[in-house]
Amino acid sequence: MRLPIIQGLIRRRLLINFRVNADVMGRFLPPPFRPKLHHGYAIAGICLIRLEQIRAAGLPRLCGISSENAAHRTAVLWDDPSVGPREGVFIPRRDTGSWLNHLAGGRIFPGEHHLADFTVTDDGSNISMSIQSCDGRMAVQLKAFESESFPESSCFESLAESSAYFEGGSVGYSVTRDCCRLDGIRLQTSDWLVRPLTVEHVQSSFFADESRFPAGSVTFDHALIMRNLSHQWHQEHEMFVKKHPTLSRQSAE
């Protein structure tokens, strides 16, 4: 049995975004997904999110739990036979620092999570993170700070353009241990407000893996930050897809 609605507070959400060769990303994605392109690039990244007061809707805040989490994701489009064109994110891997999320994910609520060690420093402006999964298959290093400037090197022309691109990606489909079944979940926030995050250093073992992304096919683009947003998670219908190498590999991990 799964909870229909989970609510809480997004204390901090970082979107660390990479631009990826569209053909490479297209081969990585299982049908029916296709990359949501921007100026010819696929956009993938890591969502690093601190959740607090997480609880079933209707329960008091004191019942809530907190956790640090990471999701590797790609902006995608697909066609739903019942409603037509849709957009969201495909999530090949989720990690969490919470044993409860690890045990309950995919059972009580959608989204199976690998267990990982998170070391986080956040003084309200400067942020550093070191994440290492317990299975040894995922590592992220990040050093960044909040700023007012959007990088000129980005394939997005402005903060507003980037914000509009990501705002539509509220539905996520995650790989499960079943190679042909994806868990679906939808994020609903009380507001949508992103600010620039200047990244001094980022390293991701996922995007550095040349068996997934050949050399030169993926480049860091820009990062965004959100803070202190009330939110709810709503379950979406599961999606059943044809067997695909990405799904088989991630299921094994």
Please characterize this protein's 3D structure:
The chain is mainly β and 253 residues long. The protein has a single domain, classed as Beta Barrel (Acetoacetate decarboxylase-like). Helix content is 13%, strand content 54%. It is built from five helices and twelve strands. It has helices spanning 22-28, 99-104, 159-167, 205-208, 245-252; strands spanning 5-21, 34-35, 41-56, 65-80, 84-96, 114-122, 126-133, 139-146, 171-175, 181-189, 195-204, 218-240. Strands 1, 2, 3, 4, 5, 6, 7, 8, 9, 10, 11 and 12 form a twelve-stranded mixed β-sheet that branches. Strand 5, helix 2 (99-104) and strand 6 form a beta-alpha-beta unit. It is globular and about 45 Å long. The relative contact order is 0.22.
